[in-house]
Amino acid sequence: MTRLLYSLCGADADCRFSPHVWKVAMALSHKRLDFQEVPTPFTSIRSVEIGFSPTVPVINDNGELVRESFDIALYLEERYPERPSLFGGEGGKALSRAIEGYSQFILHPALAKILIMDIHDLLAPADQTYFRSSREARFGKTLEDVAAAADEELAGFSSKLEPLRHALKFQPWLGGDGPLFADYIVFGALQWARVASPKSLLAAGDPVHDWFERCLDLHDGQGRAAKAA
């Protein structure tokens, strides 16, 4: 049975932009596990594996269903211990939890405001309706009102990357000498922006820019193969 990864897509099935799916796609490749992506628009997620999850990513690993990106990474580490580690031990798991919190509570809220109209515009009409309704309920305002803060968020985004710049003074990867799941967490956030929006977040010469370029080249250029907006 083919290993499946259900991934969020736009009107173009090749436009797969979910930061959480990107974490898992990179983790699967890190583990050297073959998989097939199943592009899934917002309005089709509830039909994935007979309603297994309200969100993606979801993997079907030869009949074993797992959801949520961090839980999938933990599953892969336990299920395939003989393959390259995503954490490098318990310390790496703790590091990844901290990086997950940083990404979710610092980077993602800013990116959501910066990208919100770009994401809306790359969706099919039915998914645009869903996206508008769900995000306006989440933010308590219209998409247009959320997007009104995009320029301000973009101007301040670079300062939110200072913890990464500090770490990258001492090592080439957040994981140390090589990439670990902690790297894929932040990569997913920045790849979300790269695929969904033409807005420029990283300046040439920035250590985070250079790290992101290295991430794009990992696993035979897996990240770079996704078309930038």
Please write the string of helix (H) and strand (E) elements.
EHEEEHHHHHHHH
Low-confidence stretches: none
- CATH level-1 class of the largest domain: Mainly Alpha
Report on the biggest sheet.
4 strands, mixed
Quick structural summary:
Residues 15-84 form the GST N-terminal domain. The protein has 229 residues and is α+β, with helices and mostly antiparallel strands. 53% of the residues lie in helices and 8% in strands.
Which descriptors would you attach to this protein?
229 residues; alpha+beta; Glutaredoxin; Glutathione S-transferase Yfyf (Class Pi), Chain A, domain 2; four-stranded mixed beta sheet; 9 helices; globular; Glutathione-S-Trfase_C_sf; Glutathione_S-Trfase_N; Glutathione S-transferase family protein; GST_UstS-like_C
Task: Give an account of the 3D structure.
- The protein has 229 residues and is of the alpha+beta class.
- It has two domains: 4-79, Glutaredoxin (3-Layer(aba) Sandwich); 90-221, Glutathione S-transferase Yfyf (Class Pi), Chain A, domain 2.
- Helices cover 53% and strands 8% of the residues.
- It contains nine helices and four strands, in the order E-H-E-E-E-H-H-H-H-H-H-H-H.
- It has helices at residues 19-30, 69-79, 90-121, 125-139, 143-147, 150-157, 162-168, 181-196, 207-221, and strands spanning 4-8, 36-40, 58-61, 64-67.
- A hairpin with a 2-residue loop joins strand 3 and strand 4.
- Helix 1 packs across helix 8 (181-196) and helix 3 (90-121) runs antiparallel to helix 6.
- The longest helix is centred in the middle third of the chain and has 32 residues, at 90-121.
- It is globular and about 50 Å long.
- The model has no long low-confidence stretch (mean pLDDT 97).
- This is Glutathione S-transferase family protein.
- It comes from Rhizobium setariae.
- Pfam families: GST_C_7 (PF22041), GST_N_3 (PF13417).
- InterPro entries: Glutathione-S-Trfase_C_sf (IPR036282), Glutathione_S-Trfase_N (IPR004045), GST_UstS-like_C (IPR054416), Thioredoxin-like_sf (IPR036249).
- Residues 94-214 form the Glutathione S-transferase UstS-like C-terminal domain.
